[in-house]
Amino acid sequence: MRSGNYIKQPSGYSAFVPAPLPPDPPVAMGAELTKLLSRADHALGRLDGIGAVLPNPDLFVAMYVRQEAVLSSQIEGTQSTLEDVLQFEVDDKTNDLPRDVEEVVNYVGAMNYGLRRLDTLPLSLRLIREIHGKLMEGVRGQNRTPGEFRKTQNWIGPAGADLNSATFVPPPVPDMKDALDKFEKFLHDESLPVLIHTGLAHAQFETIHPFLDGNGRVVGAHLKT
Predict the structure, then answer these.
(1) pLDDT at residue 97, as a whole number
(2) Which of 9, 54, 89, 200 would you label with 152, given CA atoms 20 to 30 Å apart?
(3) How far is Cα 194 from Cα 202, in angstroms, rounded to an integer?
(4) pLDDT single digits (tens) 180-196
(5) Positive or negative CA dihedral for 146, 215, 72, 47?
(6) Of 40-49, 80-89, 208-217, which range is least confident?
């Protein structure tokens, strides 16, 4: 397949190994995709223009980061709202907030850390590992090697699923390392429009699934830096 292949492993299960990016054959920039890309670029231009006339654009950005953290974290099952996050930041001793609010606060911290770190470190696997370490401090998944790529096979599926009944099995560790190396090179590829490049990178990272936990949260924090 263009996106990759299922490879049967010696123990019997099949794991998906993604094809490297950029896609081969290349992305077909047809009329519909070009139209959608133009609309997206226009919307981003309007947002940038609004930011330029705000008295304090940093306040706007700070709230955007928090709202994005809430939405991205909810994909992984958190229940916290933007109001919960703001309340926690005012008084972290509040007892009636959802327990998972700390995950969202960590997401905000990880994203801001990544933005600051770009001043001294290029977009890289090392930066991704550092962001993951910040993201997992003291929250769900903190005991699953924060800041380190997995050394064992993982899988996605309902409770009780094993490798043979999983919904999706990412590449085995040796293939994962090779895929990550090619992924890092793709991060600096400039052959595609930025939005398409970002979307492909997001999907590729999720497919590689290199961490034991927090892959969905870290890809959001990483790509938005």
Answers:
(1) 66
(2) 200
(3) 12
(4) 999 999 999 999 999 99
(5) positive
(6) 80-89
The pLDDT value recorded for residue 144 is 81
The answer to whether 214 and 28 have CB atoms below 8 angstroms apart is: no
How distant is the alpha carbon of residue 64 from its chain centre?
17
- Whether 210 contacts 180, CB under 8 Å: yes
Burial 55-69 (b: 16+ CB within 10 A, else e): eeeeeeeeeebbebb
Name all domains of the chain by residue range, CATH numbers in brackets: 56-151+169-225 (1.10.3290.10)
Cα three-residue angle 47-192-205, rounded to 5 degrees: 85
* Residue 7 reports pLDDT greater than 60: yes
Structure tokens at 142: 């903190």
Pairing of strands 4-8, 14-18: antiparallel
